[in-house]
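Table S2 (text version). Query chain:
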Amino acid sequence: MDNNRHFIFDIDGILVSSDILTVCFACDYEKCKGACCIEGDSGAPLLEDEETFLEDSFEQYEEFLTPEGKAVLNNQGFATMDFEGDFVTPLVHNRECAYARFDEQGNCLCAVEEGVRKGCAQNDFIKPISCRLYPIRVATLKNGSTALNLHRWEICKDAFERGAHLGIPAYKFLKEPIIARFGEEFYHALEAAADSMK
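Corresponding structure-token output:
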């Protein structure tokens, strides 16, 4: 279900765009090859504790970084401030994330996540939660409120088409990271809001 009528739900003080509940989405990695880690005008937003983890666990995922990514982290640090004043992952040549790596087929992968999968990183952290939540974007409004919106752009066109084909709303596809960031009660409230729109 996708239409031009949008609503805002207030769930536990978090403003949620109805797009998240109605628009279908399912990553189609075979087609995009991780383009969201390459394209864009800044790095992935970081929470304060994520920056700390990335620094403290550097040796656990260092081997999976590209030489260029490692050089950027050594020169710029594990986070940098973007043009909006947010702390984000540094970029290599203002393009791919410094934590990105590439396999032999040219697929873009996350070096930090690779470290977790190989058992190097002993922590529940997988990779920045903003990456795991994408295309849901978390914004802090001027009044301090948190807002969740669905971001749409050309590189994810196949993912929206795949989601529509499979009939998977974005919030269901992103259940795990939503719960990791906001908790199970919040997710159940999302389900109730989605049911109310049917």
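Notes on Table S2: The first strand starts at residue 8 and ends at 11. Strands lie at 8-11, 14-17, 80-81, 87-88, 91-92, 96-97, 100-102, 108-110, 136-140, 146-150.
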